[in-house]
Design goal:
The chain has 92 residues and is an alpha/beta fold. It has a single domain, classed as 3-Layer(aba) Sandwich (Rossmann fold), CATH 3.40.50.1000. Helices cover 36% and strands 21% of the residues. It has 4 helices and 5 strands. Strands 3-4-5 form a 3-stranded parallel sheet. Strands 1-2 form a two-stranded antiparallel ribbon. Strand 4, helix 3 and strand 5 form a beta-alpha-beta unit.
Length: 92
């Protein structure tokens, strides 16, 4: 159980991780981990950021996520995700 705000609590099984979902989906569609960009900010996303060929910690993320990323970019509300996609996927 994770309390996000006074009005939001997330309840998930302890073995559920976004990285596991990305790994399974990649396998299903024939994409290896090295071809995945994992972008994260919270504890459930640490393994996903580690798993991908390019791991990105968001500037507003927790230190655990920023620490495992290959790069750290500005906050998501400041366009950080768009910048990462432009850099990594679009080659801008």
């Amino acid at each position: 159980m994770v309390k996000r705000t006074d009005l939001l609590v997330e309840i998930v099984h302890r073995d559920v991780r976004k990285g596991n979902g990305v790994k399974v989906l990649g396998h299903e569609v024939g994409i290896c981990g090295e071809e995945v960009m994992g972008i994260g900010e919270n504890g459930k996303e640490v393994w996903m950021v580690e798993f991908g060929g390019c791991g990105v910690g968001m500037g507003n993320g927790i230190e655990d996520v920023k620490g495992v990323g290959d790069v750290v970019r500005k906050w998501n509300k400041e366009g950080g995700v768009g910048d990462v996609v432009d850099e990594g996927v679009m080659g801008k």
